[in-house]
Design a protein that fits this description.
- With 214 residues, this protein is an alpha/beta fold.
- It folds into two domains: 8-52 and 107-212, Ribosomal protein L4/L1 (Ribosomal Protein L4, Chain: A, 3-Layer(aba) Sandwich), CATH 3.40.1370.10; 53-103, no CATH class.
- Helix content is 32%, strand content 16%.
- Residues 1-5 have low confidence and may be disordered.
Amino acid sequence: MNEVVEKKVALPLLSPTGEQVGEVEVSGVLFGAEVKPQLLHAAVEAHLAGQRQGNASTKTRSYVAGSTRKLYRQKGTGRARAGSRRSPTRVGGGIAFGPLPRDYRQRLPKKVRRQALLGALSSRAVAGEIKVLDTLKLDQISTKAVAGLLEALGMGAEVLLVTDNPDEILRKSARNLPNLTLARAEDLNAYEVLRYPHLLFTREGLARLQEVVR
């Protein structure tokens, strides 16, 4: 029986000075999957919906303070009939059809989220928008050093740096850079992959991603 050879995809490997020092072969399952726009749309929509707080709240006539007594008799006054002072038509009354707290989250099946992530990674890989950093080591907290690294790599716009688990030195060095966002490989989602113009992996982050997404 012939064995199925797994397709491999090559990603550029960069040094901290911005020079390409080689290529990294990664799984075609992860970076060579079929791109399905409908799944990407569903994943992005679900992620954005999950960011909504949903805590807008108004008082309906049931929650407004005041008596429920009828203001005046139904007939014989020459005025329009009226109920209680809580009516939405009166000043200080309840709000008709106003917003109430709700949960906007959309729950997608695990397989759909996985396929959307694979499609997002594959589309960025095909476009040549994913790069791998050969080494990233900081001896001390230095925002200037991280900013210089991004400049050497030619990444002036927003960058998503995916690591295995960012240490305290890297996290504190990057927190004051508005154009850099750190992410753990195991927390990566389709929205983040598509959101940032530049996608940069560390070697450890790439290895971790291939472990958790199979």
